[in-house]
Amino acid sequence: MDETQGSSGGAPPRFPGDGTGDGPSMPCPMMESTEGETRHRPAPYFPQPGDELPAQPEASMGPVGPWATGRVTFTPQDGLTGVRPVVDRYSVTKFGAAQWRANNMRFFQQSDEKIRDAQVAINNAKRCVAKSFREADQTQLETTEHLKDRACEVHRWKTELEHVILEMTKEIELLEAERRRVKQSLSVFTIPESIAGEFLQLRAKRLESDLTRDEVEEELTKEVALCSEVRDLLVRTREQIEMQLIELKAEKARMEVDWTDKTGAYTIDSQCMRLKNNSPLILWHPGATRFPGQQSTPASYEHYTQECLTAAEAARQRSANLRSTLSAIYTNSIKDLRDQAMRVDMSLGEKIKLTEEVRLQLEKELLRCLYEQANSEKAIEELRHSVRGLDCAMKVAQTRLADRLHRRNVESCRDTPQFALVDEVKMLNERTAAMLAELKRAEETQAGLVKARSDLEREIIVKRKTLYIDKQRGQLLRSFYPSATALAGF
Description:
- This protein has helices at residues 29-35, 76-81, 97-203, 215-234, 236-274, 298-323, 334-404, 416-478, 484-487.
- It is mainly α and 490 residues long.
């Protein structure tokens, strides 16, 4: 960062009246007016010599002129009638000339005092701004150096993780080669397990209420367990290899996640290190100074990374030892595997038949719901027309009442028609309210029908999804199940 540049990206702000503004500051009018009269008499609107003496009572005055020979008081009647009041003495004045000049002096002195206070405040603000800019520049330089040190440390750990990840990748490739060598002799026994496992994953995509643990899922689970037992009997080492592969991949994924985090942190620190006051990407970020609760400390950061490296090296060493002690044990469990496959197929057929029956019943119920919804919509529309039909009668009754209000004097009588019209308005209001209540109730019923229709349609979709998984995808997948001859290796 440029040391001569302020924290706001430029020179400190300029204040009025400090010699850096657009023009000179205006002098006080009192000082300007009295500057040339230091040795002479002060301005006539300022206190004069003798104003401090007690005021002398003025002599009584005569009439203002020949036209002012009448009354000397002002009355409300004179003001109302427009007669000009007559005044022959100064009875309406409140202050004297000395007080007026002293009042002028007080205002000018007050203004001059406030101007001096403003100039002092501006000078203090200038010094504060200059100090703040210097401290901000120095602090920013120190923070940039801290960011550089942190970026170097993150880059060091990132590079070390890259080397370990490459070694783990090579070890995983070697172990995968050993697993493929063992799998070549057991490839037929992996087909039933793959079919059962994939079918379980497909059935896990069933929707909502159909996502149940039924007989088909239980039989598939048993089939997966049986396949696992057969595979364990055939090759115990393969299980160890797969477990070791899972461990290696987990450690590798953990280090990759850590490496990704460190790469992102290094990128962020590098960007922050390059930011300056004139950078186009700087913005206001309220709350940026908070400390998230999940933040780590430098000690825990180093311990976590070192722990990842140690665990990865231990897993890689176990994998190397396992590759040197490979062995295989073969056995046959064809009969149990085929019997379990038959039970799965039978339970799957029953489940498909039952689901199709439920779907047909739901579709019939949906047709009934649609028919009733159409009737409800028609009834609601008729109710709305009926409610609007009473508006004309209400207008007639209210118009009659309004017109009869214009009767004059004794003719404005509370007669029988008046009460009849009021009762008619009341009755129309009640009937309109009742019809609106029925309309609201019908609309609520319609909303319930709409929800029921939506639920039925959703449930039909659920059943069709289940049929698609069990019938089209599941039975097709089960058709690739190997025969007893294939399982025997012939």
